[in-house]
């Protein structure tokens, strides 16, 4: 996030796009509801489903799945036409504006309405709300990123923020809500195929030497593979082994028949987790790990805040801290990786990672600090880009709309979009162990518009078969006015109906994220 969770209070307008906030981030979602109800903050919700937050929204934009770029371009077209953009900010702090403007000019509200299904009047209303506000914030989540054009979706939102000068001050910014509690921290620590900790590039000779000197080893400068690419490499025989930590790809990855074949072809699969997941069934070795309340360390949350985690319970049985397990594996493979505790690891981290350099365990004893924090007397950085864009100038990117890879046709008449619900989390590794969560949502379901169900002769609770070009599953229909005609929704929490058997493995060319949010399917009686 460019901004802090707390300074959302300063926003006059909040654009929530591709985020079912009240279900996926319920604490922050309730904060948004409170702002709308008590403070009169105007919330714009753009989402294919009529999510709960629409009850408190000033404006709801029922966008067709995968048409976000067209919608954002349409809003910017109106902002430019009506002179609502921040000319002084653009002149002083940005570059590439003229090329960007040429692309946006053709995205009139009428043209965009045909693409998105949102009325031209609502597109204009959303543009005026955002463009007229002194402070407007953008909130997004995986409904924006999980597309073959997810990177361009994010760049489009950056264009919108730059256009109105909504960067570098409270109540503004471009603010992704991370999908899990330490996703930000995992990325910060180098859990990406092209970077060391702190987003330092593995291909940079000078940076690589710094880590070689610290670790006493020779390191490769070759960029690694992303999750889906690893499956492809396993099938081709280029990758022989996987080490899976805290992940359950046999439910969360796309095109699961493809992944199953890849896992079965591996010579060696290690899974390190707190429960025996579905992926463990394919493993040659399973290493039991300690859960969050059973270990010491730090988490870095969605607003870049580095926070202490303290052991409250001892790990059960043979479960151990993740870092301890990794050290033992490394040692038995011939590399003496030895640390006394998590604080010693953190001390090494901050010496090698500029934005963490000023953070110590002592400083975050009671309250976390937001990076970048370059020195021990630095207070941390609640808001990025204050006074000056970090790269020097904010870059406008001309972006054309392109439709999703899959479109409905005569055989596959529906668009399936996937997500989560309030009671279950990701692949259910933890929540499906919980009696209360299972009581409220005990089984998978397919949300469908009642009119579509009537045409197919379906009633609420009927079993159906959902088929795509890659696979099929069976589950029950849940009639829902949340859904527009021609669109259906399901979660990916349940091993009984693995929704990702249906989704495709086409990737965003830059981020390599699959298009989970748009899959062409047919719905039939079993």
Q: What is the CATH class name of the largest domain? A: Alpha Beta
Reported by name, the CATH topology of the largest domain is: Rossmann fold
How would you classify the quaternary structure?
A: single chain
Residue share in helices?
Answer: 25-40%
Enumerate the spans where pLDDT stays under 50 for 5 or more consecutive residues.
Answer: none
Head-to-tail CA distance between termini: 45 Å
Radius of gyration: 24 Å
Explain what you see:
This protein is of the alpha/beta class and 526 residues long. The chain folds into three domains: 172 residues, Dimethylsulfoxide Reductase, domain 2; 188 residues, Rossmann fold (3-Layer(aba) Sandwich); 111 residues, Beta Barrel (Barwin-like endoglucanases), CATH 2.40.40. Helix content is 31%, strand content 17%. The protein has 18 helices and 21 strands. The strands form six sheets. The protein has a six-stranded mixed β-barrel with strand order 16-20-17-19-18-21. A hairpin with a 4-residue loop joins strand 18 and strand 19. Helix 3 packs parallel to helix 9, helix 6 packs across helix 7 and helix 12 packs across helix 14. The longest helix has 14 residues. The two termini are 45 Å apart. The mean pLDDT is 95.
């Amino acid at each position: 996030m460019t901004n802090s969770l707390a300074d959302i209070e300063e926003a006059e307008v909040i654009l929530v796009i591709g985020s079912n906030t009240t279900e996926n981030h319920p604490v922050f979602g309730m904060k948004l509801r409170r702002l709308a109800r008590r403070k009169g903050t105007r919330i714009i919700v753009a989402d294919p489903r009529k999510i709960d937050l629409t009850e408190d929204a000033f404006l709801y934009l029922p966008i067709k799945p995968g048409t976000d770029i067209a919608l954002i371009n349409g809003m910017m077209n109106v902002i430019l036409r009506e002179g609502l953009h921040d000319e002084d900010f653009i002149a002083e702090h940005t570059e590439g504006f003229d090329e960007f403007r040429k692309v946006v000019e053709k995205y009139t509200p009428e043209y965009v309405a045909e693409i998105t299904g949102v009325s031209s009047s609502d597109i204009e209303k959303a543009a005026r709300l955002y463009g007229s506000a002194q402070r407007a914030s953008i909130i997004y989540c995986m409904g924006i990123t999980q597309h073959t054009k997810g990177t361009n979706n994010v760049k489009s939102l950056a264009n919108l923020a730059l256009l109105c000068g909504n960067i570098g001050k409270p109540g503004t910014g471009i603010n992704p809500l991370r999908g899990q509690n330490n996703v930000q921290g995992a990325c910060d620590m180098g859990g990406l195929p092209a970077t060391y900790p702190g987003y330092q590039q593995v291909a940079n000779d000078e940076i690589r030497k710094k880590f070689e000197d610290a670790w006493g080893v020779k390191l490769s400068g070759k960029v690694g593979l992303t999750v889906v690419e690893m499956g492809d490499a396993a099938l081709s025989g280029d990758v022989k082994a996987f080490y899976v930590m805290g992940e359950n790809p046999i439910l969360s990855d796309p095109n699961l028949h493809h992944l199953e074949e890849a896992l079965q072809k591996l010579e060696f699969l290690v899974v390190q987790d707190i429960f025996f997941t579905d992926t463990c069934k394919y493993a040659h070795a399973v290493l039991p790990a300690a859960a969050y309340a059973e270990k010491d360390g730090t988490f870095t949350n969605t607003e870049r805040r580095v926070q202490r985690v303290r052991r409250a319970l001892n790990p059960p049985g043979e479960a151990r801290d993740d870092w301890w397990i990794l050290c033992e594996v490394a040692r038995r493979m011939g590399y003496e990786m030895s640390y006394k505790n998590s604080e010693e690891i953190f001390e090494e981290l901050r010496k090698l990672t500029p934005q963490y350099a000023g953070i110590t365990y002592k400083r975050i004893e009671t309250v976390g600090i937001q990076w970048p924090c370059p020195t021990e007397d630095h207070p941390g950085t609640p808001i990025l880009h204050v006074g000056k864009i970090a790269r020097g100038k904010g870059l406008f990117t001309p972006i054309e709309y392109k439709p999703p890879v899959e479109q409905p046709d005569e055989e596959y008449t529906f668009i399936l979009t996937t997500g989560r619900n309030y009671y279950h989390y990701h692949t259910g590794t933890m929540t499906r162990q919980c009696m209360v969560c299972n009581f409220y949502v005990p089984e998978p379901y397919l949300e469908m518009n009642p009119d579509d169900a009537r045409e197919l002769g379906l009633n609420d609770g009927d079993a159906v078969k959902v088929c795509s070009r890659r696979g099929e599953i069976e589950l029950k229909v849940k009639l829902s006015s949340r859904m527009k005609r021609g669109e259906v929704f399901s979660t990916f929490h349940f091993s009984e109906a693995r929704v990702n058997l249906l989704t495709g493995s086409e990737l965003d060319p830059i981020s390599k994220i699959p298009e989970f949010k748009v899959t062409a399917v047919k719905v039939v009686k079993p």
